[in-house]
Amino acid sequence: MNPAYEALLRELRRARRFLIWRSVERTGFLATLGLMALAGLALLAALLLPLHRSEYVALRAGLLLGASAALVFALIRVLRSRAGLSEAALEASRLIDQREDALLTAFELGRGPATSSALETGYSDALTQHAVRAAAERAISLPLGRLRGWRGRSTSLKRLGIVLAVLAAVAALGGSRTITSVKRIADPETAPLAPIQIRVEPGSEEVEGGASVPVRVYVAGTDRKPRFLSKERSGGGGAWRETALEPATDEARPRSGERAYATVIANLKEDLAYQVRASDQVSPVYLISVRDLPRASGFRIRYDYPAYCGIPSEATNAITGDLAAPRGTTARVEVLLNRSVEIASIEYESGAGRLRGDLGERLARFTVPVRSDAKYRIRLIDPRGRKVDLGPYDIKSIPDRPPTVTILSPGPVEDVTRDLTATILAGATDDYGVRKVLLRYRVREEPQRVEMLHQEKDGVRELAVRYTWSLAPMSLLPGEEIEYEVGAQDGNQIDGPQTAWSETRTLRFPSAAEILADVERQQDSSVATLEDAIRNAQGLKEKSEELARDMGRTRELPWEKGQDIQKMLEGQQTMREQIDKVAEKLSQDADKLAQSRALNAELVQKLTELQQLLNQLRDQSILRAMQRVQEALHKMSPQDLERAMQNMKLTQEDVIRNLERTIDLLKQLKMEEKLEAVAERASELARKQLALNDSLARARQPEEMKALAKGEKEIEKLSKDQRAALDSLASELKKMDPESGQQSQEQRDKLQGMAPLFEQSIASLQEAMKQEAKESTQDLEHQLEEMRNAIGKMKEDFVLRKKNDVGRKMDASIQDLLEIADAQEDLLDDEKSNSGQHASTQQGLEETTESAANRISDLSKMTLFITPDVMQAVGRALANQKGAVGRYSMEDMIGGLVASKEATIALNQAAAALLKGRDAMAAAKSSTGFQEAMQMLQGLAGDQQQLNSESLSMMPGAQGQNGQEGRLSPDQAGALERMAAEQEAIRRGLEEAMGKLGQGGGTLGRLGETGEDMKKVVQDLRGGRLDQQTVERQQRILSRLLDAPRSVEKRDYSRRRTSRPGVDVVRSSPGALSAELLKARPSLAALLARGGRDPVSPRYRAVVDQYFQAILEGKAR
Fold this sequence. Notes:
The protein is built from 26 helices and 28 strands. By secondary structure, the chain is α+β, with helices and mostly antiparallel strands. It has eight domains: 3-188; 193-290, Immunoglobulin-like (Sandwich), CATH 2.60.40; 296-398, Immunoglobulin-like, CATH 2.60.40; 420-510, Immunoglobulin-like (Sandwich), CATH 2.60.40; 511-676, Four Helix Bundle (Hemerythrin (Met), subunit A); 693-791; 814-923, Four Helix Bundle (Hemerythrin (Met), subunit A); 1075-1113, no CATH class. Strands 21, 22, 23, 24, 25, 26, 27 and 28 form an eight-stranded mixed β-sheet that branches. Strands 2, 4, 5, 8, 9 and 10 form a six-stranded mixed β-sheet that branches. A five-stranded antiparallel β-sheet has the order 12-11-14-18-17, with no helix packed on it.
């Protein structure tokens, strides 16, 4: 850089410092002048005016504010002053001349580089350097100190002096007051207070709790609004609440110079301290005391239950402090008070201690443990030291109640089903929660056993359990029982878990004799109901005849007759309900008998057929007749009603005949059931005696032999029941089958002769005389086995004689029908007799046919092999014979011959149907042909399966097919024709099987629908159609044919469906077999029980029992 230019800069910087000093000095003079003027005014006001503390506070605040404003003004003015190097160069140039600016020019020329400066200014570098050098030399010679001076400086000094002189004069004139005033301005607390008077009404007083207290304040000496300060006395050193008072608007009485103000303290519940402040004056502290003692206005209680309860915390509001909770609960009690207190505590009446509470705004909190029953009081002490006791209150510790267990299913006493399982549905509840569900049971005289059915990790208050209990391992014999209970264990961890048990319930393994006896009792009720229905039907028939006659004599329907018809229909509905009731009972009896250990399929089938007979009677005949009468009654047509009533009459006659047939068949069935029951009881006696003898052979200790005496007593008791049953059976069989009645009496006498042997066996067992007991029990075993065989043979002989008797009567009826048909043919061939002679002969044949029809009707009450086809054909023959008599009587020979021919055809059809039934019964092993029908259905199922396979092989896309679609080849069309013929043959075989089973085979499932499906398949195959729908229909046919035989044994099937809520399903696996059980030889009782559960016919059960005995004796090969 140019040295000359540096010298110039140094001088310019010095000039700038002088300029800054000038600005600071000028601003300071101005600020000081203003501040002195303000201080003078403040001192003058303090000297001249009667100021008090509040005014001095304001005065000092004003001075401080002014000083702050002056300082801010000075800083802003200095910062805004222009004091750069350019301004310094210009000001320094003016020291030479007011219009001189050479220094500024040189400063500007010397700032840039030489080359650029010459280019920009147009001056040469030498000229520029010369100008700068000259400027620097001149600047050095200038008196720069003169720059500190500013215009008006002397005037400002004069003004400041005047202000200081005036201030000094004022201070001098004030004398000592000046010093006092300055001190008060500096410290307003040394200044006196304003002369303000405050008067308060009512001051201090005592009021009732909840009262509102008006407060009036009178203030003199100031116009400012006073302030009302208050705080509750219970708050101790709390802060004052401050509010402004408003001028009084009510009848205030201020004195001269006073201003009145008012406020209201509303709903006062606590002692209140208050005072009034007006300006800097404060009134004394006044106290308004509340006379009320502390009291509880309510309780808030929160129970924190222990973890083992499994219950979340609960909060409740209460009007007393009584506590009730499970033991171990913590109760958090909040007492809501009408006023605040200083101390709150709980004291137990037993003197167990004291609990100090936590205080809040008009409330007290306590934590109370619930450990045992107790009483407590709450002691409250208010701020004035007054004491109040609340209570006493009760603490009730709720003990752990034992769980509650309820068994929903099975019932108190229930029979075991054939599969030897029982489904237990039970529910358990507990206040602490159920942890375990147990099963306790006893079989025979064995010790009780306990099994755990279900366990919860965390107890639940309600638990439902469904458990399928297998009874097969217990080897129950018919007549034995299992007593069981369901238990629940809670999760109480304080006093220990408790276990409660349900009531004792019993599962019985009923014998077939017991089931048959129960069915017999039900059938007595069914017979009585049907007999009542017959009486009702006869009364309705007479009423129908009367109404039909009345309808024929009138052209209009009177209102009274309409009501009579309506009543008759109601009676018809009642009869229909009676038939429905009996049908339902028969269904239940069949289900119950099917559940028997020794399933007698013949009895089940007969019961089911009778039920279907009643169902058809109810659903078809009665229903259709009632519908016709209802339609005619709706049309109000006497002619239609007459025809409907005539049809109703015929329907009622048919109903009566069918009901009579059902009653007779029920009575015969009842006799068969009695025979079955006697045979089953004989088998049970022999089986139980056989098992007892085996147990006696195993017995080693006298106690074991004595225990067997109880079993022998049970066998003796059962033998007495058998004697009574044989006695009753003998009396009933004497009229029906004297030979069977005589055999029953003989067996009854033999059983009576066994009584001394039973007594001897019981005595020997009680005295532990093994050899004597063994001899007597073996003798009993042989005699009971002989009796079982004899009764079984008696039952078979009874059935065979009955079958032969029915067969002879059916042969006679067939012969009658054939002879009448021959006579009818002779009448048709007679060309010599006139119409009158034909009419007479035809009338005689009609009477003969009617007699034969009555005999067939009576025969139908003895067997189910006489199907409705027989009676329908006989009915057509009678109708045609009657029509022929009328035609011959009117000399209509051709019409009469046609009717006679139709009658001949109907008679031949009836004889053929009856002969078919006779042949079926002769070839059947049973009186119903049930077993043959089962075999036929199995064969039909095999044929259907083969046909289905062939249909699948011919489907498009199957192996061996060429994939052609559309027209069938001749070979394929021929194959479909052959398959259609095979399907038709299967359908006819099904109809034959259904005919053997009577009433459409309804017990074998939906076979009626199966026949319709077969017809559709035949139509499809004959039409050359073989598609997926046809194949699916064939598969459905096969499925129904396979299911039909199984549907007879309704082992675990009920017509009713039961809806139950969802429950926890618990299944228990059987435990491991013990080593002793694996080593021990099974007892005969266990083998008999196990084999008795198989559906073996009674005639073969003796052989099965002997086989088990042979196994134990080592004789089986």
